[in-house]
Automatic annotation (TrEMBL):
A Pfam family recorded for this sequence: Peptidase_S9
Source species: Sphaerisporangium flaviroseum
Sequence intervals crossing the membrane: 345-366, 399-422, 434-460, 472-493
GO MF term (any one): hydrolase activity
Domain of life: Bacteria
Protein name: Alpha/beta hydrolase
Amino acid sequence: MSDRSRLSVATGALLAILATVGYMLSPPSFDPPRLSQSQTFQSLPAQPAAEYRPVPHNAPIAVEEISVPVHGTTLTATIRSPRTPGRHPAMAFVQGSGRGDRGEFTSQATWLARAGVVTLTYDKRTVGYDFRHRDFGLLADDALRMVEVLRKRADVDPVRAGLWGVSEGSWVVPIAAARSVDVGFTVLVSSPNVSPVRQVAWALNEQLERLHAPADVRELLTKAMGGVGFNFLRYDSVPALKQLKKPVLALYGTMDPSIPFVESTQKLTSALGDAGNSDYTIRFLRGADHAMRIHGGAFTRGYLETMANWIIGLPGTARPPAGAQIAGATPVQRYEATDVPRAPWYAGTAVLGLALTLTAVGYVAAPVTEMVVRLRGRDLLPSAHSESWPAIRRRLRRMAWTGVALLASVLAFIMLIVLFSVNQAGAWPAVLSGWLIIRVLAVLMLVQEVTTVAAVVTAFRAGWEPGRWQRFTVATMLGGTALLLVTAAYYGLFGIPW
């Protein structure tokens, strides 16, 4: 058998081993079942026309900026208030995920103020809130401070001062309302009512289905999610929802790709039932996305009017007509929102980070070692069979660049999927092309590892006597790549079929 044939056999055997190891090391597959369709949601009554009747929204308003001290920091807020005499209902806006600022609510806060509602928007805290650590209770305390500011105003009816929350904000608002009777009502927009990890996994699955992505793409992404150890991802919103005693308005869009709106509604109604609260109104708005807009543009028809009529009409609008607590366009949710299987200990964030760090150290150590040796005037080429080293060094460098390209392509691929999900854009050829590039790079790195090991073994047999620095370079580069290969195997990059 020729040397090339031996290398081909060795590569194929190692590929099969890595595929098997990846399968054996993997947690259970993420395979959300189909959601059984409830008759309730298949035949919703139409939204009562009185709820979205036109609302005059041309009254003059005053705009005021204030600073509100909260725990550990101070937040800037903008209050918009009608100049008309008397006390008005009031509402503070609570942001969704990310480092939101009050500017994102300017249009609807201004519209509502001109319609007769005092509105407060505020910058989200950055102290105690970041990508890894999210304390929803701390955010709820901030929201309560804003309600306190509103209730003290002479132009606000303190009984009708409430909170509005969208997406992540709808996990925050119920906590605040459960903590204080001062919250007179809550408006929940695109409220997930399932854990963050379930919501993200559901949205990811929907997007990948739309893009006709291979099943292995979903496995890679959900395995990555399962290894993330952020405590807030497992947050359960139901206990707070069960403590809501005041009127609730929940609004969902039928074109929202980000949340399982049917299950979210079921959890909300069940929790409110346990709380003995029948003062709730749930509306599905046709064509609305996660932000209650049409394809990211204008607000969907009836959104602002429904909200204004409900708030201004309180307490009379707290309980809708009999049989119309849930109404509007027909929502369609195909899959259940299920948990992503937790990653085993060896695939957790800490272990994965350690493996990638060791790989990076191996890749960086080689050129740094060579540079240091040269600066010290040492000879990199030992006398015995020194001609072997340049060829081995070239192989090591190519292997390192392939490893770096693989990591970069995986990160770019994940960012591409996230970008497609956020913008509800993208095409399946881009996903398939990106996945193919990742798989080809993984196999190329495997081939380079095998051929480099073979070159090193051949050199040793020919009498090569590497120096200490060369031994270190070879060991770190081959070892780092081996770690990367095992990591790639866990994430299914050597899985069969392709």
